[in-house]
Amino acid sequence: MEQIWEVSQREFVYVWYYFTVQLRQIALYYVLGIVLGSVISVFVKDKIHGLFRSMGDKRLGVLGVIPASILGIASPLCMYGTIPLAASFSKSGIRDDWLAAFMMSSILLNPQLIIYSTALGPTALTVRIVSCFICGCVAGILIRVFYKGKPFFDFTGFDEPHNHDTDPNLFLRLLKNIGRNIKATGFWFLVGVLLSALFQRYVPADQFAALFGEANEGFGVLMAATIGVPLYACGGGTIPLIREWLYSGMSMGSAAAFMLTGPSTKITNLGALKIVLGVKRFLLYLAFVMLFSFATGMVVNLIL
């Protein structure tokens, strides 16, 4: 019994060491992401959404998916905040293909997550931004081609989104937004750091590289796209884990696939999308996400 206790203590020390090392390496990115995300939410969010709403007066055609996808990435809202907003956009005349591009890219990325992702290095950051932008554009184009003249979304019953940033004191408004951000992401961020510490301690790097590395790229990309479905809980929480995976030999394509399927199949996002899509279009959405993620991973591995 005493020997078991000594082994447990030793393993705790090892895991705690890896945890503190990972936390020191990633914490600054998390703090910067929280602050930037709150600043955009408080001071810039309405301007971003106003720009998208103004697109309803322009005849951009299929090219409208490009600014729609960019503005979706710039929007700081989560999916439950985006859907009521999208409902108001739809009422003001924004087309479904533009809405699809905006919502798809908004699911995948936001300014806060961009700052988090700088911890992964410039290559991974670029891959993430470009792949999310293209995913939004492709989603919009597919809706335009296959649902032209037919509604894709059903926003029945959705009202204008509730705005939490109403304190007349701008400084207090910002602090409250930062507090909500920390409350929403802080726990999952620490869970991600803990998982990366456990991974570093107990998973042999050579075996991991053999599964997800470039030598096994096709299967590795498919596996990464698949595990993104159950494993993803919060964008900030997965950054420490992805960072450790890349260091241990994961190919950039596998990482790209995980970063696409994770947020797009996050359980809260799926619950919100199921409401406005219905069963058939919801299944089409899942198929699109998996196919696009796998294809992106393979292309990224081919290029890099």
Unreliable segments of 5+ consecutive residues: none
Distance between the termini: 51 Å
Count of helical regions = 12
* Alpha-beta classification: mainly alpha
What letter string, H or E per element, gives the SSE order? HHHHHHHHHHHH
User: Sheet bearing the most strands, described?
Assistant: none
Helicity range: over 70%
Write down the domain tally.
Answer: 1
The shape is globular
Strand % is: under 5%
Number of strands: 0
CA radius of gyration is: 20 Å
Average pLDDT works out at 84
Task: Walk me through this protein's architecture.
- With 304 residues, the chain is mainly alpha-helical.
- The chain has one domain.
- Helix content is 79%, strand content 0%.
- It contains twelve helices and no strands.
- Helix 2 runs parallel beside helix 4, helix 4 packs antiparallel against helix 6 (122-146) and helix 9 runs parallel beside helix 11 (252-264).
- The protein is globular.
- The mean pLDDT is 84.
Features:
304 residues; mainly alpha
TL;DR?
With 304 residues, this protein is mainly α. The chain has helices spanning 2-54, 65-74, 79-91, 96-108, 111-117, 122-146, 170-202, 205-212, 217-231, 235-247, 252-264, 267-303.
